[in-house]
Every structure is written in C-alpha cells, then in structure tokens.
User: Fold this.
Amino acid sequence: MPATNHDDLTWGEIARVVAIGAKIQRRKARGKGGTARLEKQADEIVAKAQAREAARRKK
Assistant:
C-alpha cells in the first residue's frame, strides 16, 4: 500500500531510496565517484513501484 494517495512508493521503499541517497551523498562528499550503481538501484525501486501502482489502477 502506498505511503500517501499522491505517491507510488510504500514506506519501506521510501526508506530504501532515502538510504541509497544518503550513501550517494556521503560518497560525493568524500570525493569518490562510482555512484551510478546506487543511482540505478534507486531508479529501479521507483520504477517498480510506479509499474505496480499503474497496474493496480487499471483494475
């Protein structure tokens, strides 16, 4: 179930995306690169949630 009526993500998915975002920011603050994998993970979580909710709305 989505966290709000205006959002496709559940609370667990929101927590995972925020945690990944924090990791990305820490890496950037330390001057390290290689955040593409983490950004891709966050994008995949959001895309799956959007697809799930789109399928739910069609029913």
